[in-house]
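Posting this for the archive.
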Amino acid sequence: MTQKTSDKSESTRSTRPTPFAQTYFHGTKADLKPGDLIKPGHQSNYDDQQNSEYIFLSATLDAAIWGAELAKGNGPGRIYLVEPTGDLENDPDLTDQRFPGNPTKSYRSKDPFRVVGEVTIWEGHPEDQLQAMLRGINEAKNKLDQSRSD
C-alpha cells in the first residue's frame, strides 16, 4: 500500500512507473511526455466518423508497432510505455473474433493510461506488409460504411 507523504511525493510518483505495476505498450503518433494521460474521447485512428470510446494498449511490442504505424496524424509513429489507471478488458476486435484467446495481448479501457516512458528504438514492419494491413483496414471500413447506410 502506498501512502502519500507530501504533495511533492504525489507529484513525483505520478510521473514514474509504479513499483510492481504491469506496464504495457501504446502505439500512436501523438507527442507525449512521462506523466501525460492518454484518455478516450479523441477521434478514432480507424473510424473517421466517431470518437473513440476506448483506448487501447498491448503487452507486446509488435502490436504497439502496428498501432504506431497505422495511427492517424502527420508525425512519426511513437511507442509509449503506459500503466492503466483502471480496469482492462480484452480487445474484442483482436480477440476471439480474429484470433482465439488473446495472443496479441491487446486490451482496451475507458480509463486513462499514464505514460511512464517511451520506446525510442524499434523497427517497423516491411512496406509490403504495412500496405497489406492498410488494404485490410480499408476493406473493413467499406463494409462498416455499407452497413451504416443500409
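Residues 1-13 have pLDDT under 50 and may be disordered. The chain has one domain: 23-149.
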